[in-house]
Design a protein that fits this description.
heterodimer; A: 416 residues; alpha/beta; FAD/NAD(P)-binding domain; five-stranded parallel β-sheet; 8 helices; B: 102 residues; two-stranded antiparallel ribbon; 5 helices
């Protein structure tokens, strides 16, 4: 019996287990998925937790609920992978030998990469919201905060969900308005980028929104250290920004198991072919989701689109057929802008987000790169879609894995 | 768009980054540096040459990688090219603005 092993039962790994369970069946194939955790967290929900919009139970479910019964769920920790020998060495000394390996170990925050970040103020006045603990501690802090300087900060790119810190700033503006204390809070958005986002058209829209909401922006800020004593962040050029609460997105890195296995780059991301999702170094290793180094956004929607294409490529690979070079970097993200509204952006490797309608050209009902209530409803509905359709690998109607250019306002043939 | 600098015509994008590295030479580098209020020391040239070589080898450029390169540490990189060093240095080097940002 051949063995396909998936590392990681997060969004990407769970989707692959569901897709492949329909195609690779016993007695020819056994599928295993390995993850030491018992809980599956809806990570987009971390954004809403600090503002009391979601409760913890909205975002946590049990991992095994989403793994098909025909797939072996191994809840144990991995020591390392030996790709030259097609082996996964488990921490308890057991060994899983594979024919095909899918790496879906994700990315996580590494605050220890920045001097002082995980210092005496960590989770007291310096918070992350990319972990459950960080988001929950921040919620408790905000509940009775009297106001002051709120600094929302990105350490370095790439990060998971690159729009989340902007959404955090927008939702903070709304939150303090609703608490009738917006005039007591100064919000500053600090980024290593030159502007609010990475692509020009979306940057222009988002910077306009920041201005409208009186959120200051400080660009080109490469942080050197968090000064816990004086409560300020300092960049390599000596620029200092004071804070009363710092909400930071620390450096993101691939999982430590990738480093232990010698399979990653300097941030533990696995070098991956960006159109086929095959690992660059090992033909029987495939990578999807945040674990890869492909130049696409690290986001659930990207993993979803990748999973549809990777399923086909794995089936081609096991039959000895050439892989399809089909993945185009498609990402589709709602951006909460506060006050019950949201933006939607749809883009890929070569096309930046522009205005238009989605998913039906000329109709919508969702509007691209424009604030609307319908987009906000879409974002809230997405939690249901995530638990009930996305993880199970159900195709989302009318949304194709590769990006469509219809119904969108491009100036010309775009290359970004 | 076209731009005349150091007596030569070069092609640049809206942000002033050269779009054709073949048009670049040392005198253009010096003129671009002057536009950014810098005069180039041998240390500047070492860093610029390093960036150009990395770009030619299709290595994505980031502040982190440059800090670990052994050529220059981040502190000195900031001293050589103040404020936004990666942006300024790549502009002077005649190579595209790094897309280390997604």
């Amino acid at each position: 019996m051949k063995h396909l092993v998936i590392l990681g039962a997060g969004t990407a790994g769970t989707m692959m287990a569901n897709h492949l369970s329909h195609h690779l069946k016993r007695p020819e194939w056994r599928i295993s998925i390995i993850d030491e955790r018992t809980e599956h967290h809806y990570q987009p929900g971390y954004l809403f937790l600090p503002f009391d919009i979601y409760e913890p139970e909205d975002i946590i479910k049990s991992i095994d609920e989403f793994i098909p019964k025909t797939v072996d769920l191994i809840q144990a920790s991995i020591d390392r992978v030996v790709p030259e020998e097609n082996k996964v060495l488990m921490a308890d000394g057991s060994v899983e030998v594979y024919d095909v390996l899918i790496v879906a170990t994700g990315a996580k925050i590494a605050p220890e990469e920045t001097e002082g970040m995980k210092g005496s103020e960590w989770h007291k006045s310096v918070f992350d919201f990319y972990t459950f603990e960080g988001a929950l501690n921040l919620r408790n802090k905000l509940r009775d905060w009297k106001g002051g300087k709120l600094v929302v900060h990105i350490t370095e790119m790439p990060i998971k969900c690159p729009v989340a810190p902007l959404e955090f700033a927008f939702l903070a503006d709304s939150y303090f308005k609703n608490k009738h204390m917006r005039d007591k809070v100064e919000i500053t958005y600090v980024t290593p980028l030159s502007g609010a986002f990475t692509k020009p058209k979306a940057t222009a829209t988002l910077e306009h929104l920041l201005e409208e909401k009186h959120i200051n922006i400080e660009g080109d800020f490469a942080i050197e250290q968090v000064d816990n004593e004086n409560k300020q962040i300092i960049d390599y050029g000596g620029r200092a920004i004071p804070f009363d609460i710092l909400v930071t997105v620390p450096t993101n890195k691939g999982d430590a198991v990738i480093e232990r296995s010698g399979m990653g780059d300097d941030l533990n991301y696995v070098p991956t072919h960006k159109a086929t999702l095959q690992s660059k170094n090992h033909k029987n290793v495939f990578v999807l989701g945040d674990a890869s180094n492909i130049p696409a956004s690290k986001a659930g929607s990207v993993a979803h689109f990748e999973a549809e294409i990777l399923t086909e490529n794995i089936l081609r690979y096991v039959k000895g057929e050439p892989l399809k070079e089909e993945f185009d970097g498609h990402a589709n993200c709602f951006i909460e802008t506060g006050g019950g509204k949201a933006l939607l952006i749809d883009f890929n490797y070569t096309h930046e987000p522009v205005e238009g309608t989605f998913p039906f050209p000329g109709v919508g009902p969702l509007r691209l790169l424009k604030e609307s209530r319908m987009n906000h409803m879409g974002k809230l509905a997405f939690r249901w879609v995530y638990w009930h359709m996305l993880l199970k690998g159900t195709h989302i109607p009318f949304v194709s894995p590769t990006m469509s250019t219809s119904g969108k306002k491009y100036d010309k043939a775009e290359t970004v | 768009m076209e731009k005349v600098i150091a007596g030569k015509t070069i092609h640049v994008n809206e942000e002033g980054f050269m779009t054709d590295f073949k048009e670049w030479d040392n005198t253009i580098g010096e003129a671009l540096a002057a536009e950014n209020e810098l005069s180039l020391s041998p240390r500047h040239w070492e860093v610029l040459t390093y960036l150009q070589n990395e770009w030619k080898n299709e290595v994505p450029l980031s502040i982190r990688k440059i800090g670990k390169s052994g050529v220059v540490d981040i502190k000195e990189f900031y001293q050589l090219f103040p404020k936004a060093p990666l942006k300024t240095a790549t502009k002077i080097a005649g190579i595209p603005k790094p897309a280390s940002c997604i």
